[in-house]
User: Fold tRNA(Ile)-lysidine synthase from Natronincola ferrireducens.
Amino acid sequence: MLEQVIKTIKRHDLIDRGDKIVVAVSGGPDSVCLLHILHSLKEDFQLQLYAAHLNHNFRGIEAQMDAQYVSKLCEELNILSFIKSMDVPKYSKEKGLSPEEAGRILRYEFFQEVVEKVDASKIAVAHNQNDQAETVLMRLLRGTGIQGLTAIHHGRGKIIRPLLDISRREIEDYCLFHRLSPRIDETNLEPIYHRNKIRLELIPYIQQEYNPNIIESLARTAEILKKDNDFIEETVRKAYNAMKILGGEGCLELPIEGINKLHPALQSRIFRLAAEDLVGKKEALEYKHIQNIVELLHKNETGKKILLPKGIIVKISYNKMIFSTEDKEEVINFYYELREDDSIKLNEVQGEIVTKVLMKEEGVTISRDKYVKYFDYDKVQGTLNVRNRREGDRFWPLGLTGSKKLKDFFIDYKIDRSKRQEIPLICDGNEIMWIVGYRISEKYKVTNDTNKILAIEYKSLSKKE
Assistant:
């Protein structure tokens, strides 16, 4: 068994020489076996071991005796132990959590406290092959995908599970051989929780009626699926990183054309990665939420949005799908008067406007740069200014026979609603001469009769940064 654990450690790169490891020790067979085995490997791997035990206060005097047992065992092994008591039943009630979930949350918070106190690099927990099989069955009964069926992983972050390839029977035999006398939690022998029912009723039934090696089979299935899942995840991550566009804090965009080119299996994972990026939590979305996003994608109606857990908002804006955690459009208003041969910074949009007046005889070459435009200066009658849009704005685009609403122009050019307020407008009084970056007005175009030319350039200051 010791050789098998060493093989698992090496195959999954769980432990490095010189690691400081906090071992989660409940006092039961699994965790006691784990602590004893790691103690046996202490010299080979040059390990520094610490034990962490949390009294959940579910079992009264029995729980106190568990803590005493762990303390005594650690003294015998010369391992420093950290023992803490917390009112998990109270926490469970206050937070509206199941006792199991409440215990798990407080347990890992405590383990992290110990990690920081001793500056440890790993947390070792005692999940075994039976736990793996039970988890696969639980998730299969509840309904899940490939990722869910990979169940418990050998290592993730600081968490390592050296006993994951070892069966519960092997663990019990190990404890018996080494006379460790671990504590037995009687509630684990009662079919009162969902996992207990699977362990005590469903698995024995399958072993007897269908497959005596069901535990090994389920654990092997999880391992096979994990390899497949790792490959898919790597492929998805590359596709996601190639297409995502960061839209500022709490916002990112995905091109609808790019998403539509992907297989549906990859699309759903792309959406999960986007949610994870926003809220920093894996599996932030359930299957039904992913389906809601898929429906939104298929409808592809600009302006449509859905609200998801963790404050995530997904909306369609022309050719983009926008994921955000805020649904507020910041109102930006600016107005600056422009003078001849001058420059002025637009702090609201991190831009700069540069003006210059030229005579036609100077031989002006019309620029093809969309941020450099020329106008008939003699036609400017009012105050030359730069501002952003206002209600009721109209514009006569170059080449058309008449004016149209600025709102309709933005829609025609598929300009995101959230971006419209940031687009500078060069104006003659209230008359729009140029929608910066897009079209100039027919009324101010340079003709053969033009004498004085107004050259205007827009520079983005954010690009320089």
